[in-house]
Amino acid sequence: MERHEIEAFLTLAEELHFRRTSERLGLAQGRVSQTIKQLERRIGVPLFERTSRRVTLTPVGRELRDDLAPAYRQVEAAYARAVAYARGVDGVVRVGFSSQWVADLVLDAGKEFRKKYPRCVVELHEVPLNNPLGPLRAGDFDLQLSEFPVAEPDLTTGPVIFSEPAALLVPARHPFARRDAVSVEDLAKTTLVTIAGDIPPLWTEHIYPRQTPSGRPIPHGASAPGFPEVQSLVASGAGVSIASLRARDYHARPGIVYVPLRDAPPIEYGLIWPTTRHTARVCAFVDAVLTRASRPAG
């Protein structure tokens, strides 16, 4: 396989959308489609199932993705290390994090990074939930580890680093608070409290859906600029909200109960950096995060 075929296949396997894949790769959509078709002809079986509404991996496609992705990341990391060594990695790398559990992983990765590149300094900065991409675009961060999905033409996304089960924040006296778990369909019976600000619609629609899988509308109510304000609104009875289930370990407070959303997709976290600022430091820190994430915690 040629490098451009590997990149096209793995990016499409992640995005499952030809337009977003072409935007990430900076190629025409027809070129991506042609590359995938040529690869499928050479392998001899379809790698993707395509309809007018969706793109999915075939069983062979899933197996190829699972076999190929780790090896490709190793090649990319080896290349980045060689470039970093040749150029000399020094200076400050500014890393954004969107939650405390993300910060824990970034801190661990930073320790490994500093051992390898002692001339570098790692600075951590919290990503504002009401403007999750603004500081990155403004140059305040070199890269960040935060919630997916992100599909912006000026930003590059790495692989999913880890994922967490979703949960519903409900007032302690709410009927849902007495359940072991709730369904996404139950959201039609509630009012969602959301984060508001300069947030890409793709992210908002994914985290705070406006309808259930069966098509029932989900009412949206009050909004807030950050998570502490969301908690206060929920505790006051203004509605319920969606967050990572892991938030209860870091943000437990009176008046709120975290109830697992048993059939909701997990909340995924990945690395993001400006495409035009793909520096040796960024490559090296991405490698450090991938290395740390591949090992068990502790």
Secondary structure topology:
Blueprint lengths: L2 H13 L2 H8 L3 H15 L4 E3 L4 E3 L1 H29 L3 E7 L2 H17 L3 E7 L7 H5 L4 E5 L7 E10 L1 E6 L20 E4 L5 H7 L12 E5 L2 H9 L5 E4 L2 H4 L5 E5 L6 E8 L5 H14 L5
Parallel strand pairs: 3-4, 3-5, 8-9
Antiparallel strand pairs: 1-2, 5-12, 6-12, 7-10, 7-11
Helix pairs in contact: 1-2, 1-3, 1-4, 2-3, 4-10, 5-10
> For this structure, what is the CATH class of the largest domain?
Alpha Beta
Radius of gyration from CA coordinates: 21 Å
Assigned CATH architecture of the largest domain: 3-Layer(aba) Sandwich
Output the structural class. alpha/beta
Strand-residue proportion: 15-25%
Mean pLDDT: 91
Q: Measure the end-to-end span.
A: 37 Å
Number of strands: 12
- Poorly predicted ranges: none
Q: Provide the CATH topology of the largest domain.
A: D-Maltodextrin-Binding Protein, domain 2
CATH superfamily of the largest domain: Periplasmic binding protein-like II
Percent of residues in helices comes to 40-55%
> How large is the count of helical segments?
10
Number of domains: 3
As laid out across the biggest beta sheet, the strand order is 4-3-5-12-6
The largest pleated sheet is described as: 5 strands, mixed
